[in-house]
Amino acid sequence: MPTSISENASILRDIIMDHYSHPRNKKEINDPAYLTVHMDSASCIDDIYVQIKPENGKIVDCVWHGNGCAISTASTSIMTTLIKGKSLEEAKYIMSEFNKMLNEEEFDEEALGEAIAFINTYKQPSRITCANISWRGLDELLKEEEEHHHG
Amino acid sequence: MGKFDVDKLRRDFPIFENYSLMQNKRFVYLDSAATTFKPRQVIQAADYYYEYCCANSHRGDYDLAHMVDVKYLEARKTVAKFLNAKDPAEISFTSGASMSLNTIAYGLSDILNEGDEIVLSEAEHASNVLPWFSVAEMKKVNIKYVPLTKEGRVTPSNLEKVITSRTKIVSLAQVTNVLGYVEPIKELISVAHKHNCLFVVDGAQSVPHMKVDVQDLDCDFLAFSGHKMLGPTGIGVMYGKLELLKKMKPLLSGGGMNSRFDTCGNVAYELPPAKFEAGTQNISGAFGLARACQYLEEVGLDNIVEHERELRIRLLDGIKSNDKIIIYNKDADSGIVTFNIKGVFAQDEASLLNSKGIAVRSGQHCAKILMDFLHTDATVRASLYLYNNKEDIDQFIDALNNGGDFLDAYFN
Prior knowledge:
The structure holds two protein chains of two kinds. By secondary structure, chain A is of the alpha+beta class. Helix content of chain A is 45%, strand content 17%. Chain A has a three-stranded antiparallel sheet with strand order 1-2-3, with helices on one face. Chain B folds into two domains: 6-30 and 300-411, Alpha-Beta Complex (Aspartate Aminotransferase, domain 1); 43-298, Type I PLP-dependent aspartate aminotransferase-like (Major domain) (Aspartate Aminotransferase, domain 2).
């Protein structure tokens, strides 16, 4: 049986380094069709903006800009690649599986793609807030989008 | 090392027994600038209130309440003696340096007129910036900053340059929390007084580590926290010269701080310090803080300075040939070492050190404006105290020199 990617530390490390060194979808967009959330806090230095463009129940674009540590930068970059082009429901599913992984619960590895690189976060509990910073932002954006349609 | 036995002293601190390992490595605590561990003596003094004399103060109708009043006053006297204050009434207990500075800033707002100036520096902690921002907005006065030298120090000649006839207040840290410089506070105070400005000292990082004599400094106000000097959390001190405190309005109003009031809104305030201690106070905290003052005196503040200096030299010596480390305050005179590893985000480095059992702080250290001066987003800060020993330093040096890749923390 081939070993799972999640058991190969050097591949996971390469994924994080790759997205940290070459973050994807990193740009600031000035367009009212995009919803923007700003994630920062007094307790850490991360200062990250996530933007999504929802259209007919789909996230047609997802970008980010700002500053963060390796973990938050890589996680944000990977998140944008995962949810771009997905429906709001699919994005929510990926988000919930990601959160399950961070909480050491059973999760759907298939859904997470490169985000599997954060499977070891539990070993450094203080980094959970780094790994999920933009996912928490996404959660806010998805709620905002829902309210917009149902509120 | 030093004039006290650090390994014997460490046995006073229960946390070293109760939390001996972090990430399965020997635990090394290098974050005392954030908060300090408490010796058993302090914990017992704080518990004494709950176990032996738990009554409210200023309600001396019965013996137990009288005993609290006596002990609470004793605690105030102990702190006054620790600072060499003229009168225990010059010591008000607060929840910490932040509350002390807020009380001072609000209290002094009465002396400010539109267009006046308050002088700070860019190396101040948020607690010595934001209360002044509020007052500046309220009274339409301007905030000015003493220019820092290229190392980041505040000098009397630079203070002289920024003070004008409109400057009413100067508020500066005696030891800055990011760079750890011991500022020439006595000279700075004398410059301010020459121009008839009041001088507020933020002593949060100095009082725990060195002898601070308020009469010798001639400061008008001094603020500090108990928890950074072996004391409990939630207790701190606002020192002020008595004649100034008498004129100053209190920030908080409530029980115990007024002598009488009527329905027309006339209030007669108590004299200091009661005027600044509205509501039931953190009596246990005051007992613990007083014991912390005594503990520091027993060890000897000069010995603590010397001990931190020796450890600092050992550390800098151990990493001096490592050209991946950028040290921002090589010449600092306190136990604070602020650095970055080239190409590594501060938080990632702190995380790597955590995986090696070492507690340091990454971030902007609540002095966000300083980062413009240092030209970096964030730094890692290691801060020493009396309970750190050579083993701590050697473990830290080893982690810095042979720490491996910053992502190791994630994949070990």
